[in-house]
Amino acid sequence: GVNTDLLIVIMVYLIVSIFLNGGMISAITTQSNKMRSFLKAGLKYYLPFLLIFMCSAVLILIWGGITLYPVTLLNNMLFEAQITEPQLFLFFLISGSLFTLGYALIFNWSVLGRIAYINKEGHVFRCLGNALRDIFRNFPSGIILFLTFIFIQIALILAYWGIEDILGMRSEFLVILFFLIQQIFVLARIFWRIMLYSSIKYLYHKD
Fold first, then answer.
1. CB of 95 within 8 A of CB of 67?
2. Which residue, among 45, 17, 15, has the nearest Cα to 30 in the 3D structure?
3. How many CA atoms are closer than 13 Å to the CA of 170, on its beta-carbon side?
4. SS (H, E, C) the chain
5. pLDDT of residue 142
6. pLDDT digits (tens, 9 = 90+) for 186-195
7. pLDDT above 70: residue 2
8. CB 62 within 8 A of CB 50
């Protein structure tokens, strides 16, 4: 069914994503540009990075429940005419901002934890503890860095949709062209993620 297919897609994405992140963060941390080292690091750090991902995912879900669940309650109050639409929008804006700030903090914390693990600062939870200590250094800059990453991701997606809407896939040439554009956008996202990881490393002075 659809749910099974969706679950398979999510699982494949997680497997590939965690493997690639392990290789990328290791390459940035150790300053190695060899493909063999990249692949070896992806396998070596897969389980620890999976654990870090699970910890950060749980925290994001908890933080999302704390910040966003009240909006659903207020939405019910809107139908009962207990609050106005501008009040609901204002509360949603505040809740969304708080969720984004928390998400950025957890994301940067998880990256610092991975870097600490590669630097052999101890077991996974000790590395996450060290990352928690470091995360509040340069906190505003870390948030701005993450938000810039998100905005550029959104801009890339909107740019692709705009090009697709203008040109469309009306011929074989355009189909090939859009395939090439898709690959360019995928590479752009990968390069930007590498830049994000490098920036986090140097922002928090994780040598």
1. yes
2. 45
3. 6
4. CHHHHHHHHHHHHHHHHHHHHHHHHHHHHHCCCCHHHHHHHHHHCHHHHHHHHHHHHHHHHHHHHHHHHHHHHHHHHHHCCCCCHHHHHHHHHHHHHHHHHHHHHHHHHHHHHHHHHHCCCCCHHHHHHHHHHHCCCCHHHHHHHHHHHHHHHHHHHHHHHHHHHHHCCCCHHHHHHHHHHHHHHHHHHHHHHHHHHHHHHHHCCCC
5. 84
6. 788 788 888 8
7. no
8. no
CB 41 within 8 A of CB 68: no
CA 43 to chain CA centroid, nearest Å: 20
CB-based contacts of 121: which residues, under 8 Å, 6+ apart?
127, 130
Residue with tokens 């070596």: 44
Please identify which residue in the block is written with the tokens 């928390």.
102
